Every structure is written in structure tokens, then in C-alpha cells.
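Model it.
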Amino acid sequence: MTSHILPSQSFKPAQPLGFGKALSRLADATTRMSVALLNALRRPVRQHRRLSLVDEANELRQYANQFLRTDPAFAADLYAAADRHELERRA
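Modeled.
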């Protein structure tokens, strides 16, 4: 029969942080997580500039292009609305 002797290692016992320090770390982590969440939910701010009637009509035509293959009747209605909107100022 053989025996093995392993050298022992001495470890210092873990020191508890204390309630105040643990609470402080929890508050810091909560603050960081809240800021990250609010930044993720924030929507980009659009610059509100008044578009001309021609620009608005062109945007509507670009939107109508998305429906040209799936719903050509709806796209045609949007094109007609864009034309009416563009001609609104001239009338």
C-alpha cells in the first residue's frame, strides 16, 4: 500500500464586504444598467424641416414603390394621391 502526501496550502479566509459596500456596489450596478436601458430605448431625434410639396409627393411615390408588386391597386392610389398633393399648390 502506498500513501501520498500532498503539501498543504494556506488560504486567507474571505473577508466579507460589509453591508454598506455591498449596497453601494448594487446601487452602482443598478445605475449603470438603468442608463444603458434608457439609452437603448431613446429614439433618434429627427430634424423637423418643412418639406416642399414636391418633396412630400416624391416621398409618397417612394413609399408606393414598395407596394407595386404586392398590391398594384394600392400603389396606384398612392401615386394618384402624390399627384394630387403636388398639384394642390398650383390650383
